[in-house]
Amino acid sequence: MPSKEFDSLPNIYLVGPMGAGKTTVGRHLAELLGREFLDSDHEIERRTGATIPWIFEKEGELGFRGRETNVLDDLTSRHHLVLATGGGAVTQAANRNYLKTRGVVIYLFTPVELQLQRTYRDKNRPLLQVENPEQRLRDLLNTRDPLYREVAHHIIETNQGAARDLAQQILRVILTPQLH
């Protein structure tokens, strides 16, 4: 049941690299707020009836990004939502615009070493099916970190506690009036 206390808060969008904990933290945050939680990658799979790796294989990254943009346009048009985005969502200018202008964006910054620990066995991540996943994660972070920072209203470091603690930290940051 939605909490009246948080009705006036905008949507909350979590961005960051794979392995940042966007889905796990997002679920806790939605629970704290009494809001619906969605994961854009899961929503793409639900709508297409296909897995992300299959979409990448059949349509390439460009085909996947087009689907992702359509889903993000739809999801960011909803209200009272906590949304976890895919790690590469910020690579498209339209997605950055939807996120930045339609809610509060939280960048879950995660060091490569932690990303590697959290993703090394996950075969559902097409971009990591390479000979050197650590180097791929470093390259992706070098490319995407400026985009995450550009779109983010707040940055939270994920090596500072459990998912539930991070969700509470995000809520505190969002509820604290900004000093200008």
Automatic annotation (TrEMBL):
Query: Which cofactor is essential here?
Result: Mg(2+)
Positions the record marks as coiled coil are: none
**Places the protein is found:** Cytoplasm
Name the PROSITE patterns for this protein.
Answer: SHIKIMATE_KINASE
Q: Which residues bind Mg(2+)?
A: 23
Q: Which Gene3D superfamilies match?
A: P-loop containing nucleotide triphosphate hydrolases (3.40.50.300)
Positions binding ATP in this chain are 19-24, 125
Q: Sorted alphabetically, which Pfam families does this protein's record hold? A: SKI
| HAMAP family, per database record | Shikimate_kinase
Q: Under which pathway is this protein filed?
A: Metabolic intermediate biosynthesis; chorismate biosynthesis; chorismate from D-erythrose 4-phosphate and phosphoenolpyruvate: step 5/7
The superkingdom of the source organism is Bacteria
Q: Report the main location listed first in the record.
A: cytoplasm
Question: What organism does this protein naturally occur in?
Answer: Acinetobacter soli NIPH 2899
The entry's function note states: Catalyzes the specific phosphorylation of the 3-hydroxyl group of shikimic acid using ATP as a cosubstrate.
Query: What is the catalytic activity of this protein?
Result: shikimate + ATP = 3-phosphoshikimate + ADP + H(+)
Q: What is its EC number?
A: 2.7.1.71
**What is the residue range of the signal peptide feature?**
none
Give the protein's recorded name.
Shikimate kinase
The cofactor remark states: Binds 1 Mg(2+) ion per subunit.
Picking any one GO molecular function of the record gives: kinase activity
Q: Which residues bind substrate?
A: 41, 65, 87, 144
What family is it from?
Answer: Belongs to the shikimate kinase family.
The alphabetized UniProt keywords are: Amino-acid biosynthesis, Aromatic amino acid biosynthesis, ATP-binding, Cytoplasm, Kinase, Magnesium, Metal-binding, Nucleotide-binding, Transferase
Task: Fill in the subunit field for this protein.
Answer: Monomer.
- Show the CDD domains listed in the entry: SK
